[in-house]
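Q: I'm writing up a methods section and want to include an example of the input and output format. Could you take the sequence below and give the corresponding predicted structure tokens, formatted cleanly so I can copy it straight into the document?
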Amino acid sequence: MRKFDVLILGSGLGGMTIALQLAETLKVGLITKRALRDGGSGWAQGGIAAVLDDSDSIELHIQDTLVAGAGLCDLDATRFIVENSKDAIDWLIEMGVPFTRDDGGETSYHGYHLTREGGHSHRRIIHAADATGAAVIDTLAIKVAAHPNITLLEEHIAVDLITERSEQANRCIGAYVYDKTNDQVETILAPFTVLATGGAGKVYLYTTNPDVATGDGIAMGWRAGCRVSNMEFIQFHPTCLYHPHAKSFLITEAVRGEGGILRLPDGTRFMPNHDERAELAPRDIVARAIDFEMKRGGFDCVYLDISYKPAAFVKEHFPNIYQRCLELGIDITKEPIP
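A: Here is the clean output for your methods example:
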């Protein structure tokens, strides 16, 4: 049996962030079902939205979010997230995340380049080339592994929360955790338990989510008596590389933000027929438009074309996507991406 002040289930950006902040004063146990870097956060490519540019504002970002959310957003939650976005970015910079520099750019934040993505009226996406999630997770993982107050338990799968019922309440006092390496279930106790277990995207056959996104934490919370809501909202990223050897390789939204055009196999552009914002419409609209066009025409895929931009621009902004596609025989500086 182990005991901690705080037990955190999940080692993505949420889990690592709260671990580093609480570990300043508390003993933290951080549980992850695979290795520390194997969560979904590291898969993010495009960047993180925040109000950073002087021409932007909190109210504009809130309004963009409400529009993209089709009237379903919780206004208080939206405002809280947007108002605190700059502080969150500043904390990541302080941690040492190597965001892409643009010292001479007109749209930059303290010399960091800002790009644009669907649903946003301004350039407000701070990024690390086209591998932002990996840069953030790699930076924080080093901090987590070195912190004396954080005990990292890799290859440990949370089985269920341990609850203690009383007349006043139903309290969580820890979790049962399966240690895969030693093939045994451990009891881990803590007065505070944090569920930072990510989503459930892998309930679908086709998704850009990693294999670990299986909804464990949602199920555990439900069994323990937590309220669960909004389960109908599963995000499908609109653009995923269509190739038999790619295994759901995501093509960042920033490709469209920097001018990428969605085309049918015959080269026809189709997004203006679906939304006046075209390729910069919110993700759900773009994803549904792609699905509609593929079904309407019987196509295996559609194409995302950034090849009309200068080759140097494409390679500078999307080095990882360029390299991965090239490995599969696709030169995105000369041809569209399936």
